Amino acid sequence: MMQAYDIAVIGAGVMGTNVAYQAAREHPDKRIALIDRDKIGAGCSGYAGAIISPISLTAAHQQQTALSRDWYEDPALGCQHLLRQLDTLIVYSDASQETLNQKTDLLTPVQCEVPGWLSPPSHLQLSQSRATLWGNVFEICQHLAYANDSVDVYECLAVRDFKRSNDGWQLSMSDGRTLHAGQVVVAKGAWLSAEEQSCDLIINRKKVVAYEIDAPVDETSPLVYLYDQGAFLLPLLHKQRWIMSITSQQWGCMPERNECEISQEDRQIAETILQQHAPSLIGALRGGRCHSDGYVRERRPQVVASQPGQLVIGGGSGSGFRFAPAVGRQACELLFSNPTV
């Protein structure tokens, strides 16, 4: 007998799990399938640095960031043990101060503890800003996926194809089963195919790289944002290591593991930045994280009603954790305001 659902969400990263969770909470009578080719939260979301920093590119970013932050911190969600508030240090040049002031609403003299390894050149400024919110995205995705009884989770099971039927969609699964859904939400991140994109959603894939640094971390360790280099150092208390995220310029990088790996060029970028700001950490570089994400011009995820009964979400632009709750709300509004979106 074919399993039938009101909504099928394809892709169970931070976007897809947010959509499934919010849809189930708003409409507990709806049956929802949450499907991923891997473990829940194990794709791009599982590799992400996962921060909501006080720096926002636009007013729209600021608005969605505020919504998402409130959502994660709501005790009713039950994720507070998976979050940490971090003091935020920002290193920047005089030439960057004007643009930085436009992207954050507060720069103050430093009052938090400064890591002993941080030694930026004297011509650079060091300020403190509002706290950064960090989240354990893999565990948050797992929590959201299994929080509601009306959501059936299909892990490590790929959707080979999905086609319109008279009353919804037929999903052909990799194990030979077929599922039926009245509506489909495609939230596959960098795995969005050309056919799933449209003139309203065209993603460009870009490599995202972060190194692990073997240096002490404690409860007072701040996030260190190197503004001019587009890099940050994030303390991971549970791993007793730092994550150093750098800006790669390698575009067109597919998310498959054999196409996305840390390169010699990436190491040179990391070492050049550390040589300027924290030379004692160069010898502490260890392995790292490397994945691909889909970027769009707006630098925030887009929700597109590509055809009746189908939503496509894409363009996390390296900030899926920051925007996912706001995207989930937008997707639910479209799903339930007009079932034939």
Explained architecture:
- This protein is of the alpha/beta class.
- It folds into 2 domains: about 160 residues, 3-Layer(bba) Sandwich (FAD/NAD(P)-binding domain); about 160 residues, D-Amino Acid Oxidase, Chain A, domain 2 (2-Layer Sandwich), CATH 3.30.9.
- The chain has 7 helices and 16 strands.
- The strands form 2 sheets. Strands 1, 2, 6, 7, 8, 9, 15 and 16 form an 8-stranded mixed beta sheet that branches.
- Helix 1 runs parallel beside helix 5 and helix 3 packs across helix 7.
- It is elongated.
- The model has no long low-confidence stretch (mean pLDDT about 90).
What's the tally of helices? 7
What proportion of the residues is helical, as a percent range?
Answer: 10-25%
Radius of gyration: 21 Å
**CATH fold annotation of the largest domain:** D-Amino Acid Oxidase, Chain A, domain 2
Order of helices and strands: EHEHEHEHEHEEEEEEEEHEEEH
| Count of domains | 2
Any chance you could write out the topology, listing elements then pairs?
Layout: E1 3-10, H1 14-26, E2 32-35, H2 44-47, E3 51-52, H3 59-73, E4 83-92, H4 97-103, E5 125-135, H5 137-145, E6 151-154, E7 159-165, E8 168-173, E9 178-186, E10 204-213, E11 223-226, E12 231-236, E13 241-246, H6 264-277, E14 285-295, E15 302-307, E16 310-314, H7 320-337
Parallel strand pairs: 1-2, 1-9, 2-6, 4-11, 9-16
Antiparallel strand pairs: 3-5, 4-5, 7-8, 8-9, 10-13, 10-14, 11-12, 12-13, 15-16
Helix pairs in contact: 1-5, 1-7, 3-7
